[in-house]
Amino acid sequence: MNTHRSRLLAGASAAALCAALTVVPTASASASAPITLYASPTGSGPTCSLAHPCSLDGAQRAVEVLGGGVTVELLNGTYRLSNTWKFGAADSGTPGHPIVWTAAPGAHPVISGGTQITDWNRVPGSDVWSARVPHGSQSRQLYIDGVDTPLAQSTPAALGISLSTWDSTGFEATGSTATALLNLAKGLSPTELHELEFGWTPMKPTDWAASECPVSSIRATGSGAVTVAMAQPCWNDLTNKSATVYGGNSSNVTPYNLAANTGPTVIENARALLHPGQWFLDDATDTLYYEPASGQGAPSGHDIELPRLQSLLNVSGTLAKPVHDITFTGIRFTTATWNTPSTGVGFAQVQDGLAITQPYTTVSGVAQPATQGECDYATPNAGSCPWGAFTAPLANISLTAARDISFLSDRFDDLGGTGLSLRYGSDDDLVQGSVFTEIAGSALWLGCTGDPTPGTADDPASAVIQTCSADPAASAHDPIGANEIMTGNTVADNVIYHDAIDYLGTAGITMLFTQHTTIAHNDIYDMPYDGLTSGVWQGHVDNVNSAPTYSDQTSQNINADNAITDNDFHDNMQVFTGDGGEIYTEGHQGATVLNADGSVNDAASYASGLTVSGNVLDTNTPNSAYATAPDVGSQWIYETGNVEWGNAYSFSCHWPIPTASRLTYTGNWAANSDDLPCATDHDNTAIPLAPGPADVPLTVLADAGPTAAYQYLETTVPARIDYTGATPATGSTPTQVLVVGSGLSRSTPLWMGGVPVPEQDVTALNPEFLVLDQPAGTTSTVVTLQP
Fold first, then answer.
1. pTM exceeds 0.85, yes or no
2. Euclidean distance between CA atoms 142 and 302, whole angstroms
């Protein structure tokens, strides 16, 4: 039989080969005989030829038989999944011969977890339209022509509602607010009432979080008052987090409770709240309602996609049997949701999408504090370990125990949770040349909340497996320790923009606990919060014997040898403009190495720390905080060759002790002063607050963002200008203007002072940075895309 298989591999056509799959034993394909299979959205049968392609499932079954070196070409069209597309160890390639799932030449395959909604009808006597949806549909997102569309909502003020004082169960209202609440609730069924949500953006007293909780009931008390009971455990998790030995819930090392006397900033998810450009899904009747925005026309003239799946693609093995050597290239992954925030769990955010999901418990009728992730530092009762083991958002595309997996020139959009997540022993994976946009949370997430020090007493194997593995039962005997630490992953040459659009307190890229991770040559912009976060609340201190921000040994984790280099961060921190930055860190970014006498070995500690180099950090958002923000416990960060302007502060050394700083800033160009200079802050060059071309190192700008082979990605994004700054004329050199944005080129139609700029007067450093000569006869240096 093996001899027969060898003959097949040596000379058979793809059609003959696939027809024989039922008798071919499972073994690796010969490296000398590459095989190409074909799939299409309407494919069926076992042939997998170009003339008779398979379905996705059919092609996957064929690949499992053939092994490494097989290429599956996806023909054009939308592959609408009914279930998660899953890959396990049996779907692996072999080292050097990956299984390649790729767009066929000229094709643009779309992997979708949604249903296209058609057959719209106007609701009589209104501007609202309705359509039937598949039974059981649930979603927090609706995408119209590829754009995330707001859920039905209103502000409390617009509804005549003023809520502030709350207790362990919710709010009490009187007077006109009570009347308005009763009027709102009057037209809602019990099911619809439970779908109503209160949101806080921001969640005071923080300047980095946004939370939401569903309503449980709205009832008149009989004394002219109305009580609003909030869903549990969300409400307890939002308002009753455990205090810690470091200073209660007002300490910057303790997750904050919702501030007292703080009402919601938005009320959403009821048909009665519909406004133009908003939608509502009635689960009970399987009916979708939409009120078109002004000038938008009937919904039948638009592509309207309702997500059905939460998990779109899952590539998961175990540490004992990882999935490996698979490449996805030229594929669009789109249309998924994340429904947990609509349940009683809600979304009680801590920071950057991390949330408390502690079960609601009472003792003698008194709600117990949510002690999730507080280890032995909670008071009066200890919590779970490790410190900060909060709950991460769902990822619509996820890798766990996945090695040598590549996403090349793909597109990730219209996703309702985190876009792409890598965790739990996922090593040597590559995300390159891809676009991430219209994602509800972070575009990319690297690491797991439950493994800062895997295999130790603080992070026992059972806890790591339960928190981080996609299949804890299958991973029950995985070797936790060095095998579980994520290492060698690369995120490079991607365009990441307009993400975190529903969960505003999330970052473009989130890094937790990894080693030898490289984030390089990405264009990251248009985020409401940080461009990139490393550590999040996970970085807070876990050494009770030392002051929170001063110990060399605080916040232990396995982070080491990571690099954030040559990226372009711009126009981030759009919503949360205080406590955050283009690059934000918490906790050790490398271990503290001690000499034999117990003193700190700075050189060795820096050698395995975090390198931040060659980045351009240009926010230009008022009060936009820090270019780089090293928060509590941030140590062993070496920053050099970066350029910043448009931030409130530059390379801040605000939190660590200046006289014993474990942060080095040298050889940078900075327009803004440090928040508090570090002892190692030296040899930096001051530039003007509004720099022109002569004020900045143009070679650094030219090297930031995608490299030449991937700059074509910028042609797929809308052209935009975020900043212009001029250098006055000198001698025969005319006034020159630095233009910063995305999607730009020499041929982009540009006007300066209302006059078109000739193409010969444009120097393109790359698609994010242009230098323009001022046209003769103009006086204004304001550059626009339109006159």
1. yes
2. 12
